[in-house]
Amino acid sequence: MNNLLRPLKVVAINGSPRPRGNTFSLIKKMFEVFQKSDVETELVNIGNKNIKGCRACMKCLELGNYKCVIDDDIVNETIQKLVKADGIILATPVYCAGPSGQMKCFMDRVSIVNFLNVKHLNQKGYLNGKVGAGISVHRRGGAVNTQSQLNYFFSSNGTIIPGSTYWNFATGLEPGDVKDDQEGMNNMTDLAKNMIYLMNLVRNDQKKKEKYY
Predict the structure, then answer these.
(1) Residue 174, number of CB atoms within 10 A of its CB
(2) In which element (H, E) is residue 91 found?
(3) How far apart are the first and last CA of the chain?
(4) Is residue 77 exposed (0-12), middle (13-18) or buried (19+ Cβ within 10 Å)?
(5) d(Cα 192, Cα 142) in Å, to the nearest integer?
(6) Residue 137 forms beta bridges with which residues?
(7) By the 8 A CB rule, do 70 and 52 touch?
(8) In angstroms, rounded to a whole number, what is the distance separating the alpha carbons of residues 108 and 75?
(9) Rounded Cα distance, 100 and 93, in Å
């Protein structure tokens, strides 16, 4: 199928060690909005996986195939999902005023593969032009710093970051607590709507380029 004819698709990466915890509740809220607009969704849980850190070996520059040389965890498999996605969500609990360790390792490796493959293949990276949003759950503090780190990942890889009605985080500790943060949950709804709007703009632009160029 022509990629421009298939339904829009969002892949959410859950960096929480609790696959059905508060971070998942935020993703679920956004997925409900996507599914009402016929946007396909896929959830990838990495927070309960053994994600190895980047070795700075630079082998991905030699490979040039959108793969990390470390091939015994979930990262390469997930990169292929990101390649095919129109929208990407990075979701994480706040740990020490930053994303979870699994999410940080994931971002490091996905980002360097994208960057070095661009240099190797002399073309845009697989994250360029996609729509990406970071969301997080905090107990008391550190959420703003976490959001900054998630946004740095997107902005350094050419990914389009949508705005919303407030910063993209909610407050909670025990599973289900975030559902009591009405402002946080409403923000997930607005964020999802803005992602849909931007993904459609990108898709329509791609159709125009395919038609005329």
Answers:
(1) 10
(2) strand 87-93
(3) 20
(4) exposed
(5) 23
(6) 93, 170
(7) yes
(8) 11
(9) 6
Q: Which two tokens stand for residue 4?
A: 């421009």
Residue ranges of the alpha helices (H) in the chain? 22-36, 59-63, 75-84, 101-121, 143-155, 182-212
Per-residue pLDDT reduced to its tens digit, 17-66:
999 999 999 999 999 999 999 999 999 999 999 999 999 998 888 877 88
Q: Token digits for 62?
A: 């030699």
Question: Could you tell me the CA-to-CA distances from 112 to 54, 66, 143, 193 in Å, in that order?
Answer: 9, 10, 24, 30
* Cα–Cα distance, 75 to 49 (Å, whole number): 10
| Paired tokens of 180 | 């009591």
- Ordered by where they begin, the domains of the chain are 9-212 (3.40.50.360)
Q: Which amino acid is it at 67?
A: K
Residues paired with residue 134 on neighbouring β-strands, in sequence order? 90
Which tens digits make up the pLDDT trace of 87-100?
999 999 999 999 99
Degrees (nearest 5) of the Cα angle 86, 79, 160? 35
Place of tokens 């661009």: 118
pTM: 0.94
